[in-house]
Design goal:
Strand order of the largest sheet: 2-3-1-4-5
CATH topology: Rossmann fold
Oligomer: single chain
Low-confidence stretches: none
Number of strands: 5
Shape: globular
Mean pLDDT: 95
Distance between the termini: 10 Å
Strand content: 5-15%
Order of helices and strands: EHEHHEHHEHHHEH
Structural class: alpha/beta
Bound molecules: thymidine-5'-diphosphate
Number of domains: 1
Length: about 200
């Protein structure tokens, strides 16, 4: 299973992935936890550039895709081949939501680049942790570039994810505003049990 986790800032993805990994360990499911941008040596180097430098939106898009090509070939594909589940913090849907729906780069071009960078492999399941952006931004302690873009940008990102969710059968939207981390994890585990 190739499972991705998406959401706007401060939605609790990292906590969920940590808790879920512990649960999968208990259940004896071999798995790998990874993230984008990053997840392999070169991709982590590219991540530093993306998150710390100012750049043209197209440069940014190409760097996310470059990092993805590295990450997919060196980390994701080998783990899937070994029969591991891969839990990936953000993937191609983030590029559509942030660079496409929010930044305004043409979606068809992003879809093409996404397909190339990920060797046409789509996630089997994608969990979108949905949270009103004001709540998420209030939680984010060390704002990165996208968080500093503010609430209007984040709203476009969220709307983008919800649009994608309408079209993609693999999407599971979890409304997290009234749930504690254990409850979010429980919902995900319940869904994943179907595949164990
Ligand atoms: P990170 O600090 O890991 O944020 P988070 O914990 O919210 O995942 O930074 C990753 C940032 O990169 C995040 O703001 C979303 C953004 N991003 C894109 O804009 N496009 C992409 O394709 C990916 C993978 C991430």
């Amino acid at each position: 299973m190739f499972i991705t986790f998406e959401g706007t800032e401060g939605c609790g993805k990292s906590t969920l992935i940590r808790n879920l990994s512990t649960r999968l360990q208990t259940l004896g499911v071999p798995h790998l936890v990874t993230r984008e941008p990053g997840g392999s040596r070169t991709a982590e180097e590219i991540r530093k550039v993306i998150l710390n430098e100012e750049m043209d939106p197209l440069t940014e898009l190409f760097l996310y895709e470059a990092a993805r090509a590295e990450h997919f070939r060196n980390t994701i594909a080998p783990a899937l081949k070994q029969g591991k589940w891969v839990l990936c913090d953000r993937f191609t849907d983030s590029t559509l939501a942030y660079q496409g729906y929010a930044r305004g780069i043409a979606l068809p071009m992003i879809r093409t680049l996404n397909r190339i960078a990920s060797h046409r492999k789509s996630p089997d399941l994608t969990f979108f942790l949905d949270l009103p952006v004001e709540i998420g931004l209030a939680r984010a302690s060390d704002p990165n570039r996208f968080e500093r873009e503010g609430v209007e940008f984040q709203k476009k990102v969220r709307k983008g994810f919800l649009e994608i969710a309408k079209k993609e059968k693999r999407f599971r939207v979890i409304r997290v505003s009234k749930l504690d981390p254990d409850q979010v994890c429980e919902k995900v585990v319940r869904e994943l049990r179907k595949y164990l």
